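We keep the chain:
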Amino acid sequence: MYDNEKEIGAALKKLFEDNVVNREELFITSKLWCTDHDPHDVPEALNRTLQHLQLDYVDLYLMHWPVRMKKGSVGLNPENLLPVDIPSTWKAMEALYDSGKARAIGVSNFSTKKLATLLELSRIPPAVNQVECHPSWRQAKLREFCKSKGVHLSGYFPLGSPGTTWFKSDVLKNPILNTVAEKLGKSPAQVALRWGLQMGNSVLPKSTNEGRIRENLDVFDWSIPEDLFAKFSDIEQARLLDVSFFVHETLGSYRSLEEFWDGEM
């Protein structure tokens, strides 16, 4: 999907060869794309990823979406949608865990209902559910369910993905977030990341700017006081990511966004 594994693999090889870091010091995650949901394609997909990354194993392997698309198809054209069979795909994921090539397995973009169904049928429960999560989309229902079931919630778009061209994101411009940041002498991005950590989820910021990368890492030796933290509950909630391309009136498994997210919109 991201088409960057070969470049990452080359960088990792150099880091290991130069003794900059050891493999055991890194936590490396990859994902199973929608075109590889057939049980026979699942191990091939991971083997391909490991070859590109020049690794023997990944620490976490996630089912990217509860969606299946035609093998070999490119892009997000609805004509490539197929009915999804999560139980069969997950069984193949469990085999990857058994093999040791994936030290942990999980899912991404699963609603509370879909996660509950998977937990009922799984031999090895998903360790992680990686989803959109930031102060403007707190995932309250899903968060509580994950906590009750021992599934770690990991948040992508923790800053609202301000550099993207897919959608307009005003997460970091929220007045409440900016007021808290000003009072703490921190940037809005730092406060958004710290909020996620204090909520108990991991955060996955993305930046190509060295200064902002360093700033994003400076979130561990301070905290948001309880009185300011409470103000986040007043932030209006709205999901950023529009997945209309996974919805079709006849193709695939979902006829509406309401059905895709099981009402969590």
